[in-house]
Design goal:
Two copies of one chain form a homodimer.
Chain A (H helix, E strand, L loop, with lengths): L8 E5 L2 H11 L7 E5 L5 E3 L2 E3 L1 H10 L17 H8 L10 H15 L4 H11 L5 E4 L7 E5 L3 E4 H7 L6 E6 L9 H9 L2 E4 L4 H9 L4 H6 L5 E4 L2 E2 L2 E2 L4 H7 L6 H8 L5 E5 L11 E5 L6 H16 L1
Parallel strand pairs in A: 1-2, 1-9, 2-5, 9-10, 10-13, 13-14
Antiparallel strand pairs in A: 3-4, 6-7, 6-8, 11-12
Helix pairs in contact in A: 1-2, 1-12, 4-5
Chain lengths: ~300, ~300
């Protein structure tokens, strides 16, 4: 398939890694040609607030507000509220900056008043000047649950933040995903997509929680368009986060080939990093390029290479 | 009645004025002899948070954390979250400092998890080192509603904060108060009280919302103990807030006598300020003293005078 200019892309993302590619693509495509679908498996209630870590990371990244040292949170944020919470014995294991808190307050208030998560996400984009559609994959609650050897069953943030993803994972569940549905907005975007891209996010913790929602996987398979994932493994490691550690714990080889295996027939294309050992899979077109995205320039360059390959 | 040392006092308070007397009494009486019952008519939901302005004012005052310039809020608080909210177009008309927000987050989280307002108030006292019982008059929601000439019907905070109590009040309602009940804790405290004191808070906006709750007025009347109010009017003015303006709008003379009239047979004693013109009411013992409480020392002095009169 040759994409001839006016094509539409749907990008599936988790947090930091996905946000980088979303940022790069947003600098090359106009808003009507890029829809970003974000994982909600990390979303949780904390201190009475609805917190959506992946959506916020993408939001702050696209808004140019992200703390580039961490990859998440708001740049130059303060932590007055956390300090005050600590003073009165409150929970501070989940670091929320003051500006970040303003986002959670706004979201929680709107949700409590009956707005859909999709509407709230759109409103937050608007107030932060983000013109791209940033859509939660579903408006329902589908929390990722992590079974671990040392600590038993953990909520995602308990595993990821409170326990710094150190426990050994034995299984991962996507609670309620089976019975949940993708939103109308996400469904429409998929139906109209000329290409579907899966960001180099953690396949098990960021992408699988989306693929587990209702009939999403079948809906994607039904689209005869490029369905491409970018490898989150570069040189035998995850750029950030627990992907490589998790693969070992799940008994998998830590490689791009393992990732491609995991996605299986969902993909007809794969973007691998040049430093990885080449591999071949039946029915899979594989592009090899430098996919490291340490800064804004690199993100645009990677997005450019991806789009050029798509158009070729 | 002569109080002989081990007497128990129940003090009914609103916000700033009531907090001052509560502070003074707390410096003279041990925790088992002072129960503070606080107005909840001002409580409201804002930004998804449950905010209890009167309770917080008393809490911060007793904890030695209050901003003494305003009389409410936390001393030396910052406003990082409000600034961030303003950046994303959020509501900032109700000023919430960052440390104050930590209180609201803690309260809201506990309420959302099913705790009673009374339990949460007790927990907040504990974490802030306040040993006195600070009890919401009811665990139910009984919002004060203000009818105004210029702006129609307003929620209390809309009248009080957003409109800076400038609209002309035509009527005041205590929504749901009739069908609500005082808590078991408040009922027990009243039953065991050797004296009932109504702080120099706004009779219509701080005290009446409590008296309107269920059978509270009847329960107080049933107690054959000193039932004393302290005048919120000193020298024809309210020390703070809209009491005097409100009295004019309700067609009342702005005087301590009007306040005593308003409380009616609920009282058998009244503490008037020395600068007010003396008045007499059938069945009402009236003490005259300096009741201005500009600082901590004055609060203790006024509380001391009140206790001495009670014991005499």
């Amino acid at each position: 398939m040759a994409l001839t200019g006016a094509y539409k892309i749907v990008l599936f993302v988790g947090g930091v890694g996905g946000a980088k590619l979303a940022y790069g693509l947003s600098k090359l495509l106009p808003p009507d040609r890029l829809t970003i679908v974000v994982n909600v498996g990390d979303d949780f209630w904390h201190l009475g607030l609805r917190i959506c870590p992946d959506a916020d990371t993408v939001l702050y990244t696209l808004a140019g507000r992200v703390d580039s040292a961490n990859g998440w949170g708001v740049a130059n944020d303060t932590s007055q509220v956390l300090t005050a919470l600590a003073d009165i014995g409150g929970e501070t294991w989940f670091r929320i900056g003051d500006a970040d808190l303003a986002t959670h307050l706004t979201r929680t208030d709107r949700l409590r008043r009956g707005a859909r998560p999709t509407e709230v996400a759109t409103e937050l984009c608007a107030v932060m000047g983000v013109e791209y559609a940033l859509l939660p994959v579903t408006d329902e609650s589908v929390p990722t649950i992590v079974d671990t050897k040392e600590k038993g069953r953990l909520s995602f943030q308990s595993y990821f933040v409170a326990n710094r993803w150190q426990p050994t994972v034995t299984a991962i569940g996507y609670e309620g995903a089976d019975g949940a549905s993708v939103t109308r907005e996400v469904g429409d975007a998929i139906d109209q997509a000329d290409a579907i891209i899966i960001a180099p996010s953690n396949p098990w913790l960021s992408i699988a929680p989306m693929l587990a929602v209702g009939d999403l996987r079948a809906r994607l398979l039904a689209r005869d368009v490029p369905r491409i994932a970018m490898s989150p493994i570069i040189g035998g490691r995850a750029v950030k986060g627990p992907a490589a550690k998790l693969m070992r714990e799940l008994g998998l080889e830590v490689s791009a080939a393992s990732v491609a295996d995991y996605y299986g027939d969902l993909l007809n294309g794969f973007v691998d990093d040049v430093v990885n050992p080449p591999f071949e899979h039946d029915g899979l077109k594989i592009a090899r390029m430098d996919t490291m995205m340490p800064d804004g320039e690199a993100r645009i360059r990677v997005a450019q290479s991806l789009l050029e390959w798509l158009e070729s």
